[in-house]
Amino acid sequence: MDNKIVKIFDTTLRDGEQSPGASMNMEEKIQIALQLEKLRVDIIEAGFAAASPGDFEAIHNIAKEVKDSTVCSLARALSRDIKAAGDAIAPAKHKRIHTFIATSPIHMKYKLQMTPDQVIQKAVEAVTYAKTFTDDVEFSCEDAGRSEMPFLKEILDAVIAAGATTLNIPDTVGYTMPEEMGAMISNLHAFVGNRAIISVHCHNDLGLATANSLASVKNGARQVECTVNGLGERAGNAAMEEIVMALKTRSDYFEGIDTRINTREIYPASRLVANITGIVPQPNKAIVGKNAFAHESGIHQDGVLKHQETYEIMKAEDIGLTDANTIVLGKLSGRHAFKEKIESLGYKLTEEELNQSFARFKLLADKKKEIFDDDLRAIITDEIVQVPKIYELVNLQINDCMNGVPSAAMSIRHNDEEITDAGIGNGTMDAIFKTIDRISGIQGELKDYKVTAVTQGKDALAKVTVKVRFDPALSAFTGHGLSIDTMIASARAYISALNAYVYESENRSKRDRGGI
Ligand code: KIV
Ligand code: ZN
User: Fold this and answer.
1) CA of 172 to the centre of ligand 2 (A)
2) Of ligand 1's atoms, which has the minimum distance to the CA of residue 237?
3) What pLDDT digit, counting tens, does each position of 26-68 carry?
4) pTM to 2 decimal places
5) How far apart are CA 378 and CA 42, in angstroms?
């Protein structure tokens, strides 16, 4: 093992997906996995195979597509979870099973209701069984941050003997302080020696996830678990971009310890994840926030103009942010210029995807004066990541008069048939969603609604994300819609959630009949 390399274990598709409102469909997960591979992430945690058939399928498909990164599935220390994980990752060139059980007194007593000895036995059985699917097995002591050191050593000893190759020490509830985390990792590193790689997985409840991860690296951890934009359960996980850029920028402090990440893919990855999940990093977010490289005050601007390093510790180009804020294309740009621009942004589209995206660009260019890189990224994500367009919005007219009854009239294409109908509602949005329900014959219940502007300006593209429940027995489906007009974006988002639901229902009945 190269002692100066920290492996990046990306869990955007698993822990990141646990962020409220961040659920992704299979196509979206595949797009993100391919971008993670471009980033040269060492391990992609593609999901939790036993969680649902949809999760299983997404991991299975990612395992088929990804060639360079290791593809991993999470599994509780239960044989049915491990079997699902092993089957899901089977097609991968490099595969890992990540199994876990809680080790803190509070989790063992109240959640698991097991004695420490029973926990050790479960952990050993889990690792032993996981080894029958792959040699690469990671074991996590959930809530390690609040676990007792002698017990951690005992269980780690046992799982190493059973064949675990990576030992993950999560600060599951984000409770630990950087000095404590550093001391814990230093102690465990000395204990484990070169028998296994020590990994950390830090949550951000006190805003310390990055600091805790870096303190761990300084003390011997050689794998960091993190997510793009710091997505994750509750306050999120350590942000991949922060870990990677801190190691690169402060190489002097970390004595040359580095990652294999291609940092120029950081910004595209951040935008892709933001476009897909609808969760946009706050403007002052380190590395990828809109203001991260902007200088507002005159003194700073003057300094940077005289010498860049007066106020900049990193180069925007190093994270792939070259000309994201320059106007890139306009109404008169042709297909050739569009193709070149798309390629310079790192996209490789099929002829059909290129045609679809170009048509969409032309429509946008007719209405929007300036088209930025981020607009293009949003269009492409929207075009190529859609589940099959079972229903498609053709036309929408609304009447949102102040004193009358808000109404919507629309045409939707379904199975080559165009259906037109109209409806009223308690507001314009309600009228739109009710009319879609009438046309599809499927009743939806709106659970969440969010609108963000893709770029700046009065004519900015609106990105709408909705969560809709169509069946009380299933969880809500997420949909995204993009348009310069917020109402059209909202209709598209609702229809996209409807498509995800119909697609999942059709696949579910095929699976039930043994079709896949
Ligand atoms: O936060 C946590 O402890 C986890 C484990 C499953 C690694 O996500
Ligand atoms: Zn976690």
Assistant:
1) 6
2) 1
3) 888 999 999 999 999 999 999 999 998 889 999 999 999 999 9
4) 0.86
5) 27
